Amino acid sequence: MPKDDPVRVTIARLEETLAGSPAFTRIEPRFYVVKQGTAYVYIHVLPWDPDRALVRLVAQLARGCEMTPDLAIKLLRLNARLRFGAFGYVPQGSCVVFSHTLLGGETLDPEEILTTLRDLSVVADEYDDLIVEEAGGQRMQDLIDASASAALFSHLDRPGAWDDDT
Fold first, then answer.
1. pLDDT tops 90 at residue 109
2. Per-residue DSSP letter, 158
């Protein structure tokens, strides 16, 4: 790949900008997560055309919720007022998400990354609770807590689990 590969440039800009944040974690190449309160914003760097890259930011706000016409209209009205991002619905898993996409590459700057991420994180952290309250389901934090508890208890339920450090 050429030295000025837009995916590599984008990854470098993201990592330089967010490296000092304790909320920022690299999950795998081109995939990151930022935790804000009870919300998680996933950042995925994607190639787009031979000389372009995209930065896709997605927060899963509620999973297993009921999308009613009333909730859909509320989310669409919010979309019309938001500075960054838009609410959406993913039928598989009955998920309400909040997402935004930036153009990566040479034009991506730290202020753009931080401003967008800050807005998405704050909105996601505020609205995950409201959506679960109205439509049911679980927030991302609840799902992660349940998964961690299940892993812990499955380990403790093994014969001899109290006897070893694994």
1. yes
2. S
DSSP strand pairing (95-103 vs 31-36):
unpaired
DSSP-derived 3-state class of residue 87: strand
Is 33 in contact with 59 (CB distance < 8 Å)? no
Taking the C-alpha atoms of residue 64 and residue 140, their distance in angstroms, rounded to an integer, is: 11
Looking at residue 103, its pLDDT comes to 96
| pLDDT the model gives residue 156 | 47
In the chain, the amino acid numbered 58 is V
List helix spans (H) across the chain: 6-18, 69-81, 110-135, 140-156
The C-alpha atoms of residue 74 and residue 99 are separated, in whole angstroms, by 16
Could you give the CA distance from residue 46 to residue 61 in angstroms, rounded to a whole number?
22
Write out the two tokens for 31: 């995939």
The region of weakest confidence among 46-50, 128-132, 139-143 is: 139-143
Q: Considering the entire predicted model, what is its pTM? A: 0.82
